[in-house]
Fold this protein.
Amino acid sequence: MEENRMTEAAPEERNVRSGIRNAEKRKEEKQDAVNAAVPESESPFQGRIDIKSLELPALKDLLAAFGEKPFRAEQIYEWLHQKKAESFDEMTNLSKPLREKLKESTFIMTLREAAKMESKLDGTCKYLFELYDERVIESVLMRYHHGNSVCISSQVGCRMGCRFCASTLGGLERNLTASEMLEQVYQIERLTGERVSNVVVMGTGEPLDNYENLTAFIRILSSEKGLHISQRNITVSTCGLVEKIERLADEKLTITLALSMHAPNDEVRRQLMPVANKYALKDVLAACDHYYQKTGRRLTFEYSLTHGVNDGTAQAKELASLLKGKNCHVNLIPVNPVRERAFTRPDGKNIQNFKNVLEKNQITVTIRREMGSDIDAACGQLRKRYMDTNKREGGE
Ligand code: SF4
């Protein structure tokens, strides 16, 4: 998109703006993803930088443009990502003129809590957060013995079209910015007063379809001057975008990769996941092997069990032979029925049988513990219900 918003600026302002452009230069290759996330035409922040999405080097460039020392960038970064400040006025160790400059040239992304449901069974909380453009996303807080885990969304909607998933029914609306992904974690910490120790990117969206924003999010979330959540405690789930998995392997990140596998062969996988028409399972698994070789991180394979589709003994055996010898863990997920789709969950006997077959073949396997089963069950369903009952009027 042509840049046409920087006209008639005073010399000093021009200076600052050119510095801002330098800061943005580092993100040049990311521009497509960022534009897709916040289209200029829809953004109420026109011409201002999303400061919470900037990694520290880019923030230092920005502050250098203001004639400030690098330590100022570190202070601001800590305010944004450690203290989770929501306004520049909270940044009391910055001079007032600097705070004013920041307000003129940048903005702090925040999310508004639109709805919340809390499970009486296990304390799981599902949140609907409203974005600046009134779209809503879903995030989930799960409380485990070992700490709090948050499942975040990476996109508004999804274009991958998996047949068992409610999140894709309306297609992809837009990518989330790094700041919008971070805010889901920060907002849950603010709202609960509890620390989050694990983050899984398994909510709405295909994370690797929003690659630049995702990797910025991971680096900021795990940075020492941020929340400092260990990368080992961050899991990214993908339906299997081969080139992106290979690229991720080279990022020097130590996150866990979870492949949404859901079938032991291409034929069944194609029935469930349109992405299987583009990537053969053997290529997806080869990319996963590459990820393991590069990172040393044990792979996770997610397998949604759907009655009569992929839950038979023969399929369990086929899956076992495919994964034999890999350093991996299989997570069986009895599918949650989606009202709009005719899939049903297998009964307990079939689920246990499937697990037994894998175990007999020395594959580590767990059945995902269902969290928050008394509130809106499957991923994306709370959002969908909210959207159905709160239909927005078109346009302003
Ligand atoms: S399962 Fe994930 S990748 Fe597939 S449609 Fe749903 S959100 Fe998208």
In short: Residues 158, 160-162, 165, 167-168, 204-206, 239, 260 surround iron/sulfur cluster (CB under 6 Å). Residues 11-107 form a domain with the DNA polymerase; domain 1 fold (CATH 1.10.150.530).
